[in-house]
Structure formats: C-alpha cells, structure tokens
Amino acid sequence: MGSLPVPHLARQGGGGGSCPPPAILTQPQVPRGELPQDELVLADPPEPLLQQAPADPRAPCLIEDMVNPGDTLSILLNPYIGAGELEKFTSACKGLFNVASLRVGKTYRITTVGGLLQQFVYEEDDKGLLVVERKGDDFAAGRIPIVYDVKTEALAGEIRSSLFGAVERMGEKPEIALRLAEIFSCDVDFLRDIREGDSFRVLIKKRFLDSALAGYSDVLAAEFVNNGKTYRGFLFHDETGKATYYDAEGNSLRKSFLKAPLAFTRVTSGFSMARRHPVTGVVRPHPAVDYGAPKGTPVMAVADGVVAFNGWGNGAGNYVSLKHQSGYESMYLHLSRFASGLSRGGRVRQGEVIGYVGSTGLSTGPHLDFRMKKDGKWINPTNLVNIKGGSLPDKYMKEFKKVVAEQLGMLQDALAATGTKEKSGAYSVAEARP
Length: 434
Prior knowledge:
GO terms for molecular function: metal ion binding; metalloendopeptidase activity. Keywords: Hydrolase, Metal-binding, Metalloprotease, Protease, Zinc. This protein is mainly beta. It has helices spanning 73-77, 85-93, 163-169, 175-183, 394-418; strands at 11-12, 42-43, 60-66, 107-113, 116-123, 128-135, 138-145, 149-158, 199-209, 212-226, 229-237, 243-246, 266-269, 272-276, 283-286, 289-292, 298-300, 305-312, 318-323, 328-338, 347-348, 353-357, 367-374, 377-379, 423-426. It folds into three domains: 11-145, Nuclear Transport Factor 2, Chain: A (Roll), CATH 3.10.450; 149-255 and 390-426, Nuclear Transport Factor 2, Chain: A (Roll), CATH 3.10.450.350; 266-383, Glucose Permease (Domain IIA), CATH 2.70.70.10. Mean pLDDT is 80; it is low at 5-54, 267-280 and 425-434.
C-alpha cells in the first residue's frame, strides 16, 4: 500500500524503536476549528510500516491504512479516543468535512501517543488532506492542499484490439482512454466505430508526487484518427476562465448529441422494426439500440434536456425519458437506479449521468435499451444527424490560433523525438503549479 500523499509539507524524521516516532505538532493553543495550516508538520511514514505498540509507551506510533467497506469514523477512531471525544472530533470537522462520507479506498493516517489519538490525516481527494489534531481536551481541524510536480507530456498510441489496450501498452492509466472518449464523444462512437489501426496523440499535464505518477490534469490537445479520418481538439480558456475544446478552426467539439449514452461497452442488438423478443419470443418492433454493459455502468444524457419521466414502466423497468430541442426525445430503459437528484421537470446537461445500467423490467441481463423519437416518431439513434456546436467568438481567434500552433508544435516535436509511432515521453520540465 502506498503512503499517504503529503509531498512538499514540512516533515520531521522519527526516532528509534519498533514504531518510529513521528513528530507531533506542538503549537500554541488555538480555538477549535482554527488550525494554522502554515505551521502544520506531518510525520513521515515509518519504513517498514509497523502497526504494533512501540517499545516506549510514551513514543508516538503511526498507523496507516485505507478505508474498507463498512468502515466508519467511529470504527477507525474508537480504539484511540476517550469517552465522549468522538463528538468533539466531529464538531471540529463541522463545516470542513462530512464525517459520514468516508470513501472506500481512500488513505488515512492515525498518530497516537500512549494509545491515545494525537493526529488524524485523511485523503479527501487528489487536491487536499483533512488534518485533525488533539489540542488539550479538544480537537482542531484544517485542510492542507497537495502540491504536485506537473509535467507536460506527449503520448501516442495505436489501437490493436481496444483503446484501453493501447493505453495499457503505453504504461498509462485507463483515464487516458476515458478522456479521449469524452473529448470526441460527439464525433466518434467509441462503442461501434473503433477500428484496428486507429491511432491517437495526446498532449497532457501529468501530476507527480515524489517522482511517482499521481494522476492527470488538463488534456491540452488531442488527436484521434478513426477509419482514416482525423479529429483534433484543443483546450482553450476564454477571459472568464471557461474551458472548451475546439477544432483547429475554432468550432466547438460539443455538438447537439453524443454518439452514444455510454462511454465503453458493446452493441448487443440494433434498431429493428421486426425483432424476435428474447424473453417472449414474439416478433415485434425494437426501435432501440441495446448496449450490453455491467450493472451499475453510468448512463449519460445524450443532449441537454428536461426530464419528462423517471420511474417504473412495466416491461421497461426503471426508465428515464428526456425532452430535447427541435422535437427530439430520448429514452433509457432497464436502469438499476436513477442518478441522485434526478426528478421530473428538472434540467440535465449533455453528458450528465442520469442513471445506471441494470436489468429491471422485461430483460434477460444487464443492458441499456436506448431509444429516440423525432416529432413523436421512432428514429434510429445511430443515423442521427448531428448539429455542430457554436464557434469561438472572433475576439478570441488570434489568441486561439497561437495556442493551436504551440500545442501542435509540442505534439510534433515531442513525438518526433521518440522516433516511434507509439510512445510516451516527457516534453517539458516540471512546472511549479498544483
């Protein structure tokens, strides 16, 4: 298990003993909830990590683990706090952190002295840590941002069997594939259109902690060649800070409809007006595209719209119906559950998760039955003519063209330096930016 990511924070080394003692904060008393972040000192994890009582009972002991299914704050802390102290701990976190929202897989660190809790550190997300410390008979809480080393790198890959496989061969995380699918979701159907020999290039910011890859930041530019046709996207921020992907001519990559309501899966049954139903055996119209996917796979709205219905529909099981502009309607059947907060009359944005794949209603297994209508008549979703999104305002075009030239140049230069078609390599030096 990797240690809690706390780079660039002040650290102090431990002493001897079977549980090397980390430094515990010794600061002047401060009111509860007002932990001075600039004076925080976090302990280095011992090597090797030991979770046993130290030889000296007065020496600090550090315990590091990950949140497991069923864990609660009381389960984690009760062995190390006195009667009534959990309420004080919770009160210190009020307004900073919901103590009921511990997430499975997140790392936490407990420092004790004489078996009593002195410091609790929890990895809230990839941006910051929650730190709670004992202050006499009370606790104080604060947040510490995680500061990363950021490098801009160029990646290139070729598809042999799948996009995920190509990314894996490069030694990168699956998130790269998901980012590509998101950027080109209105141009490429990553469920049906991917071909062997398709290729991609990405200019991306990577985040590192102590020289180890910790995750990805912005995709600055991306290229995807699908069946001989090249698609490109360039990230651009306007004066308000809004970030959008555009093609080289300044046209938004966001179009009226997504190519599919799922990121990655397979088509198990196509649009047909005379299909034999797999359950009843009756031949009847199937004005839908079925996508086989594991239960719980997120389902996205293919366009901006209003929720016309979400509930039970007999053979359709749990389903959602969305009304869109220009007389379009989309339906999502057999869902296992709906997205939190989804309600009739509410508005949804393109790409927003509205539910999760299931097998409710008349269904033989987990899949999404996706349907569309135009002016009340069934249409084949795969034949939908997409309408282009807006263009970048003229006042930004000069700056945008400069960005495109720079990003294309970085892609070309970095990949040319690798000497191969499929490669990843650092292009720029680390940047002092979180």
